[in-house]
Amino acid sequence: MKKNVIAIIFIIGLVLYGGYEYFNKSEQQPLQSASSEAESRDVGIEKGQVAPDFTLQDLSGNPVRLSDFRGKRVMLNFWATWCPPCRVEMPHMQSIYENYESEDVVILGVNMTLTEKALGDVQPFVQEQKLTFPIVLDEDGELMQTYQIVAYPTTYVLDADGVVREKVRGAMNYEMMSELLAEVK
Questions:
Q1: Could you tell me if 138 and 110 are in contact, meaning their C-beta atoms sit under 8 angstroms apart?
Q2: Transmembrane segments in this chain: where (predicted)?
Q3: Angle 174-183/84-100 helices, nearest 10 degrees?
Q4: How many other CB atoms are found less than 10 A from the CB of residue 54?
Q5: What DSSP state is assigned to residue 39?
Q6: 148 with 75, same domain?
Q7: One domain for residues 171 and 128
């Protein structure tokens, strides 16, 4: 019971923080372009902008950069092990990864490690779900803030140039993901 109360308070806090960030968006400074490829486009998280680049460590401690996937369509999925909709969505993500990998599609899972009870919860979850797509750890919550994640799961669909084409809050099934990928080249 105590854990449920803490979880509810945490979720309410996330929602309030998201609302605060949303309404204060106009006061934020625009993100600057980080690469020469993106100089002609704004960097940001809105449709038509180049997604902000980042480097995070994967589960083996290896650095992974978002820009390493240029030339491929990317489903950038923000999730946590304690999130019931994330648990429902993961098998669909894995199927998309397996069925679309030959079509230059990659799923990049970003675990919101800051919100986990323990870092040690992530690896068993990945093994239980039999996930083989790349997973990186946002241990300090910086990426969560950059991408303004206020609900789990949240997925950004990027085209081969790293441009944000769709943003989906909430769980998706295989058909929804497949339709999104058909629209993004």
A1: yes
A2: 6-23
A3: 50
A4: 18
A5: T
A6: yes
A7: yes
Task: Supply the pTM of this predicted model.
Answer: 0.78
User: What pLDDT tens digit does each residue of the chain (185 aa) get?
Assistant: 655 545 455 455 444 444 444 444 433 444 443 344 444 679 999 999 999 999 999 999 999 999 999 999 999 999 999 999 999 999 999 999 999 999 999 999 999 999 999 889 999 999 999 999 999 999 999 999 999 999 999 999 999 999 999 999 999 999 999 999 999 98
- CB atoms near residue 59 (< 10 Å): 17
Domain of residue 19 covers 1-29
Tokens of 146: 């950059």
Q: Are residues 67 and 130 in the same domain?
A: yes
d(CA 147, CA 125): 23
Residue 121 burial (CB < 10 Å; 0-12/13-18/19+)?
Answer: middle
Distance (Å, whole) CA 164 – CA 2: 40
